[in-house]
Design a protein that fits this description.
Elements (H helix, E strand, L loop, with lengths): L1 H17 L13 H12 L12 E7 L2 E11 L2 E9 L5 E11 L2 E6 L5 E7 L3 E3 L22 E7 L1 H5 L12
Antiparallel strand pairs: 1-2, 1-8, 2-3, 3-4, 4-5, 5-6, 6-7, 7-8
């Protein structure tokens, strides 16, 4: 019966070593991720967030079809947007709205089929919708389709490219 006590003591010591109050390991949070991002920007692997253009045409292709997103500048950090997320021949999400940008954070607001708002992320190459969007956003989707977790890659920057993005029911997503 001494073995379980021994393992309990070892486990407690290991947990203690992992706590913030422990003298083992760093006392402050590390900015290693930020440092790597800066190096990637310097090397030209990632775009500089200060020089990122959001206006443009975005796509993601899969065996189900081509998901599309577009953004046309309305003014300083404000955009008219449209999207089409394809889940098969008859299954999709489609709509229009507005977006505002603050760094990598994109606030998406849809209103033509009911209020739907969420925060997305844009790194200069890829726009990612959150893994879970509110139930109110289901008005923009057919049965068994969802905006949750959809993502789009910039394929052509600029307002003109965005205006040429075609939808299904909505002829031009960013007209």
């Amino acid at each position: 019966m001494k073995i379980p006590v021994f393992f309990s003591a070892i486990t407690a010591l290991l947990l203690l070593a992992c706590t913030e109050n422990s003298s083992i390991g760093p006392k402050e949070s590390s900015n290693a991720g930020d440092a790597l991002d800066l190096q990637a920007v310097s090397a030209g692997i990632l775009p500089d967030p200060k020089d990122v253009e959001f206006a443009g045409r975005y796509e993601t292709r899969s065996e189900l079809g081509t998901d599309k997103f577009c953004a046309v500048a309305n003014g300083s950090n404000s955009y008219r947007i449209g999207f089409l997320a394809v889940f098969g021949a008859e299954s999709k999400c489609e709509g229009t709205g507005t977006a505002s940008i603050d760094g990598e954070n994109v606030r998406v607001e849809l209103a033509d089929k009911g209020k739907c708002a969420f925060n997305a992320r844009y790194d200069g190459i890829e726009l990612r919708f959150p893994g879970v969007v509110g139930r109110e956003c289901s008005a923009y989707c057919s049965d068994k389709a969802s905006l949750s977790g959809t993502h789009y890659f910039m394929v052509q920057p600029g307002n003109d490219a965005a205006r040429g993005t075609l939808g299904r029911k909505i002829e031009r997503l960013c007209d």
